[in-house]
Amino acid sequence: MARIEYDVSQTGFRAVLKDYQELALRVIWNSQEGANSRTVWVKVNQMLGGETISRASIINFLEHMRKTGVLDAYDRTGKGGHQFVYRMGMNEEQFKRFIVKTLLESLMRDFPEETRTAISKIS
Question: Given a cut of 50, is residue 83 above it in pLDDT?
Answer without folding.
Answer: yes
